[in-house]
Design a protein that fits this description.
Number of strands: 6
Strand content: 5-15%
Strand order of the largest sheet: 1-2
Distance between the termini: 5 Å
Number of helices: 10
Radius of gyration: 20 Å
Structural class: mainly alpha
Largest sheet: 2 strands, antiparallel
Length: 264
């Protein structure tokens, strides 16, 4: 008989898991102030004595397109507002989030003091949850960097060059996004707006929008964006957010899964 030295699924871990998943997967809607936009399945493995020896969480985003398009009057996913309200001065500087007053395609930072306070308190719980789940600060920073990059890409937006080709509307914001992603603005521009890169990312955008029940919005976007620049940007951002959500799920499962499955 082999045993697990410490409980895998403590109440503190349960709270931390749901805190993280809800931050990344929940949003306010007109019907619910904290609506879940993802589905999840929790699997528990027991040994012959009834002790939990392993846990896994599976989750699927049902509305990933919300990160770039939302129903009228509804905000983006909760974690963006919580991060923007909760980061300290140094973290804001490191993620190039000193100025939150620029127009953004994807979100508008909270304006009311009480809303910012509530969001900042939620951010403190997120940080505490990463510690409970054993997520290294550098791993957490990678997640926050992706969120910051998405914010900067919303500011960068899309415009057209003198030749009519799509490009970033605000190159300085695109530069900040590239820094957060650990790449160059030239590489980011090539990926999004070169003919081959745009076709690839635009195909991803169409699949993501259709999979989220927003194919009509995707078709309207294509009609108003014949060169595919905005669609490519949106598709890229949806893909980034999906990867961030997948990373959260991986980090959650790492903290509650063991190969020490005890059997008698």
């Amino acid at each position: 008989l082999s045993t697990v030295s410490a409980p895998l699924f403590t109440p503190e871990k349960v709270t931390a898991i749901f805190c993280l998943l809800e931050a990344f997967g929940n949003a306010r809607t007109v019907m619910n102030s904290n609506a879940s936009r993802f589905s999840q399945l929790v699997s528990l493995d027991f040994d012959n004595s009834g002790v939990i020896v392993s846990v896994s969480v599976q989750a699927m985003m049902l509305e990933k397109s919300r990160v770039v398009r939302r129903p009228p009057g509804e905000p983006n996913f909760n974690v963006f507002y919580q991060m923007l309200a909760g980061l300290d001065i140094k973290q804001r500087r490191d993620l190039h989030l000193d100025n939150l007053n620029e127009p953004n395609l994807f979100m508008t930072p909270l304006q009311r003091t009480e809303d910012r306070t509530k969001a900042a308190n939620a951010w403190e719980k997120i940080i505490s949850s990463t510690k409970v789940l054993g997520i290294h600060p550098n791993e957490a920073l990678s997640l926050w960097s992706v969120l910051a990059a998405i914010y900067h890409l919303g500011v960068a937006s899309v415009s057209r060059s003198s030749s009519g080709k799509p490009q970033f509307g605000r190159p300085q914001a695109a530069q900040r996004a590239a820094l957060c992603l650990g790449t160059t603005v030239e590489e980011l521009t090539r990926l999004l707006f070169s003919d081959s890169g745009r076709r690839s990312v635009s195909s991803l955008s169409t699949l993501n929008q259709q999979g989220s029940g927003s194919s009509l919005a995707a078709r309207k976007s294509k009609q108003s964006d014949p060169d595919g620049g905005l669609e490519a940007l949106e598709g890229f951002v949806v893909g980034l957010y999906q990867e961030a959500f997948n990373a959260v799920l991986y980090l959650v499962n790492r903290s509650i899964t063991t190969t020490n499955n005890a059997n008698t």
